[in-house]
Structures are given as structure tokens and as C-alpha cells.
Specification:
Layout (H helix, E strand, L loop, with lengths): L1 H10 L1 H17 L4 E3 L13 E2 L5 H32 L5 H19 L5 H14 L2 H22 L2 H15 L1
Antiparallel strand pairs: 1-2
Helix pairs in contact: 2-3, 2-4, 3-4, 3-5, 3-6, 5-6
Length: 173
């Protein structure tokens, strides 16, 4: 499964690089040391930076949520390009098709690479539910559960497979 995981990350390298960049930014903001900042490497840490665990519930939630949210926002706005061209451009143009394809691939790569590592997700759940106050538990619960499940979805390449299935469905419809 690791070979498929690494292959999907290399196929969607723009999203992997951007996700690693967001993780490193959160580590710098939270003043957590980064041990290895290579984003594209040949192990399960591909598209992630190797860092120490976040010491607080807020930091543990941030290292999982901020990169996922920023990748989602970027993918959303990049998906608007092909949608607008498809809805409002009524002519067939090769350049337009190429722009749509590149924008969709970039958005797809951002979406596939949005979830955290399993270790970060476990750390987030432990910090939020054991050390967090009641307000943090209430506010972080929906996103923490979504990110925790998403970490497993990404580890087993289900997000990539679902993205390919969605792309095929869009093309066929």
C-alpha cells in the first residue's frame, strides 16, 4: 500500500508540495521544530514535514486543520475556472481545454493531499479530548472527527480513488 500511496503523491505533486508548505508554516507559527522539511521523499512522510508533536490542543488541531482548509479553499477556487469556462464559453478551443484540464488537475491534487498524517490525527484527538477545555472540545469536535477519518482515507489512497471515480463520472455525464 505504501508504493501506491507514494505513487499517488507523485502524480499529484503540486498539492503535496503546497500541503507540506502549509504544515511547515503552521510549525513555524507554533514554534515547533521541524526535523526534516523535504516535501517529496520516498516514504510515508511524502507531502508532510517531519516535526515534533504539538504541545497544545490548539497547535495539534492547527497542524491538521490549517493545511486541509487551505488546500480545500485553493481547490474550490481552482475548480471555478473549469466550471466558468464550461458554462459560459460556448466555443470549442484547444487552449481553453488545456487550461481547464490543468486547473482541474491542480485542484484535484490539492483535494487529494489535504488530510493529515495518522500520527498527527491521533495527537490531535489526544490533545483536544484530554487536554482541551470544554469550549475547545465543542468547537473542534466536528472538524477533528472529519480530519481523523480523512487521515485514514488518505493513508489507504481512498481519496485518490474516489477523486478518479468522480472525474470519470464528470466526464461521462
Amino acid at each position: 500500500m505504501t508504493a501506491l500511496y507514494i505513487l499517488t503523491k507523485y502524480l499529484t505533486f503540486p498539492g503535496a508540495l503546497i500541503r507540506g508548505m502549509w504544515e511547515q508554516a503552521v510549525c513555524r507559527i507554533c514554534k515547533v521544530p521541524v526535523e526534516d522539511n523535504r516535501y517529496l521523499r520516498k516514504d510515508e512522510m511524502i507531502s508532510h514535514v517531519e516535526h515534533e508533536f504539538m504541545p497544545t490542543a490548539r497547535g495539534a488541531f492547527a497542524i491538521c486543520f490549517v493545511p486541509a482548509f487551505m488546500n480545500f479553499i485553493g481547490a474550490f477556487f481552482l475548480c471555478l475556472i473549469p466550471i466558468m469556462f464550461t458554462l459560459y464559453a460556448r466555443f470549442d478551443d484547444t487552449v481553453l481545454t488545456l487550461i481547464n484540464s490543468v486547473a482541474y488537475w491542480f485542484a484535484f491534487s490539492l483535494m487529494v493531499n489535504s488530510y493529515p498524517l495518522i500520527e498527527d490525527a491521533y495527537n490531535m484527538m489526544e490533545k483536544v479530548y484530554k487536554q482541551g477545555n470544554i469550549l475547545q472540545k465543542i468547537l473542534y469536535a466536528p472538524a477533528a472527527a472529519f480530519l481523523f477519518i480523512g487521515a485514514f482515507v488518505e493513508k489507504y489512497c481512498i481519496s485518490f480513488i474516489l477523486g478518479i471515480a468522480l472525474t470519470v463520472a464528470i466526464v461521462l455525464i
